[in-house]
Each structure stands twice: as C-alpha cells, then as structure tokens.
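stage 2 :: seqdesign
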C-alpha cells in the first residue's frame, strides 16, 4: 500500500433513496424505505473509496467482514449520507467505522474490514476453484 492511509482518513458521499433500493423478497416489496442490503452495499462502497487511492499496482482489496446494525429508516426520496472513517491499517487489513444517516436520523452504523492482497494471488485462488467446479457433477 502507498503511504498516507492511516486512521483518520475519511470518505463521505450522498445517495437519494429510490424505488430500486426498497427491500423486496420474491417480487414483493416490504417497505418504501432503503433496504438493509442496499445500506450495506453503500457502506462497503464507502470503505472501498477509502482504500482505492492507496492501492499499489497489482494490489486489491476485498470485503472480509461486515458488522452492521440497521437502526432507522430512510424513506423514498430522502438523501442518505454514507461515511467511512479509517480506524486501523495493517499490511493486510483496513478497518473502517461506517455510518449512514439522514438529516433526521441515524440509519445504520458498524464496522467494515477489508483484506488487502495481490491480485495475482486472488486470480490463482479463483482459477483453482474453477478447476474444481469443472470436475463436479452439475446440480439442478
């Protein structure tokens, strides 16, 4: 990783809740609010934005763990601010506190940890799994 990524580095951006973000299961919309899945997606995205400027050539990051609480709603048309605050950096890990909030309430909070690794190592792991998959009988 490049120099400069340390606790205190922060990223912030805003998203407006739209119909595609609502929770739905088997085609049934549950509520006209931002779903937990959508909230976590943007929390992960905020953490990724923290590491991107600091990745070296050939280096990559991936989600390792997510510990999130969805504590309040964000309704259709409402703007949600997502923040990731770097709290810990090691050679192979970056930890961020992540939050989602509207002008009126906290929507979610938690911790997102990313693993940092060389792309070639991940490519090799993926190729090995794909070879194993080719040998497996197909399940329907």
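stage 2 :: out
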């Amino acid at each position: 990783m490049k120099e400069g990524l340390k606790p205190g580095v922060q990223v912030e951006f805003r998203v407006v809740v739209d119909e595609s973000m609502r929770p739905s299961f088997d085609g049934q919309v549950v509520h006209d609010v931002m779903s937990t899945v959508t909230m976590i997606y943007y929390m992960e995205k905020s953490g990724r934005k923290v590491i991107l400027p600091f990745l070296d050539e050939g280096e990559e990051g991936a989600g390792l763990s997510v510990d999130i609480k969805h504590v309040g709603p964000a309704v259709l048309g409402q703007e949600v601010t997502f923040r990731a605050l770097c709290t810990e950096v090691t050679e192979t890990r970056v930890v961020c506190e992540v939050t989602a909030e509207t002008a009126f309430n906290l929507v979610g909070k938690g911790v997102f940890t990313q693993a940092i690794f060389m792309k070639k190592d991940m490519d090799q792991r993926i190729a090995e799994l794909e070879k194993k998959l080719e040998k497996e009988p197909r399940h329907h």
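stage 3 :: structure notes
- The two ends are 43 Å apart (CA to CA).
- Helices lie at 36-51, 119-135.
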